[in-house]
Amino acid sequence: MAAHAGLTVDRITRAAAELADRVGIEKVTVSALARQFGVKDASFYSHVKNLREIRTRVALLASDEMNQALAAAIAGRSGAQALAAFADAYRDYALTHPGRYAATQLPLDPADFADTEVLARSIELTYAVLRHYRLEEPARTDAARLLRSTFHGFISIEAAGGFNHPRTAADSWQRIVTGLHHLLDTWPA
Question: Which Pfam families match (predicted)?
């Protein structure tokens, strides 16, 4: 069966990620993927347990891709430059790969990613950007949550076409990132 249509876990995951970018992660189904490969749904179950596993694998793939983009963006930078590069890479990935990005926002069972470092890496990258601001716990966690929620909120509204104003979203984005830098620089004790 593995030879049938060349099905492998990796091919299924990549096909699911591409489908998610086209139609949304919530519309990725075993049936939709089976049609794409020209096989019956049952052909998938010798490779993956269920739809949840497929979506989890897409989330992990996307997190890894996003981590690579973020790491490349912040390499050799600190402070405002690192924050801006991180923010821009985050936004670019989310807008370029909307289905994959949505998968990174799914609640995952810790047992599903216990054997991978990908989620820990995303925290490390965020903390690397925050290092310049010399925040101790719990302020560092609070600041990381501020960045994630600000980025996610802005990107979600932007992707939905919710910024219907003559000022470009890109201009607002730059001002928000600058504002975040100033806030982090003067984070209350």
Answer: TetR_C_33, TetR_N
